Amino acid sequence: IQQTLHTTLNSYLEKLLYLLTGHFGRQGGNNLHTSLLPLLGHTDERMSRKGRMPQRTAHHRMHPIAGIYPPNILPDEILHPGEDRVRAVFVDSANPLLTYADTEAYERAFQSLELLVVVDVAMTETARQAHYVLPAASQFEKWEATGFNLEFPENFFHLRHPLFAPLGAALPEPEIYTRLLEKMGMIPPRFPLLALVARQEPNLSAHLAYLGALAATLARRPAWIPYAASIVYRTLGPTLSAGAAAAAPLLPLAVQYATQHTAAVKRAGHAGNRLTLGSALFRAILAGRSGIVLSRHEFADTWSLVQHPDRRIHLAIPEMLDELRALHTESPPGVDYPLVLMAGERRSYNANQIFRDPAWRKVDPDGALRIHPDDAQALDLASGARAICQSARGEIQVVIAVDDTVRRGVVTLPHGYGMRYKDRPPLGP
Length: 429
Description:
Elements: H1 7-20, H2 74-79, E1 88-92, H3 96-99, H4 103-111, E2 115-120, H5 125-129, E3 132-135, E4 154-157, H6 173-183, H7 192-198, H8 204-220, H9 228-235, H10 250-260, H11 262-267, H12 277-287, E5 292-296, H13 318-326, E6 340-345, E7 369-371, H14 373-378, E8 386-390, E9 395-402, E10 410-414
């Protein structure tokens, strides 16, 4: 329901359902969670305290969500005439040319950019359009961690260790971004005082001294605050054992997490006071080769994680209620296009764009169009048959998979197929 018509409204109504039926903040129901690495920031649509309007996109006048434009409007924002158009795009570990809607629109838009930079492991379709491709080390060649540590009530975190040295000129992303900042003059290449403090014996007190020196440095040079992760990487990073420099920015994050969720962190077995608990958590992360439990929450904690100052969930969202009312006047699917297409289904072998060799796809090699048996029978289709999936925007050849788990009147396709592999043309639908 989140990859078809009215996706945002569907998500809103889903949340209303479990909230109004009392299934929030209870075991087996829906709960909020804490996160060591937040995936997205908060978007405040209200007026700023200085009276300035929040940023909107130039063409559609939409609010970017956590600084990210909705994918369906980005081509328009690039092709929009005028100096306020999007003129440069930086793509990291994504392939919008293939995984976002309307590949042709993205091709036109990206070809018009003054600068397109791609950081990726694979030579994706988007990378082929780029002015610069910065090769990143693979997940087996660098220290890394997932941002999806979103469990409740126990929250886990796994700092994964590299197995091999990076191939060729590939670099881990922290090194790529830090070098860019240094070349651009946004930060200096050396921080002698911070580096000196960081080289102390890496115990709890040394971490406190380092964080104090870092805070003093950023207070003197507030322009460096947005680049604090790279500064920590350059200064504290080289002192960490086993080449774990990329993990250095986890220290301030661990301190912040332990400060915000002290009781839950202690329930997970981490010891320390308000000054040392975060440093102890950081050391546990470094030592936990198979991951650690960050925190153990209680279900009563859920309401304290609501971000509104009144700690209440504000159910009524005017835009959503307006869209809900508009459903009464919406036309049903027409005679020419009687089926609803869900075009973003996530399947086992389309979730990772690194898997580019078609031979690796053990199941669903064609990215089949799944259809209910009744609809298939009405169209005289059987599993394995080839058909044309056509909409008002375009058409694509598909292989049929009859599946009684699909709702009648709906057909589903995965995203992300048709990737190029070793200069071959796209394969599959």
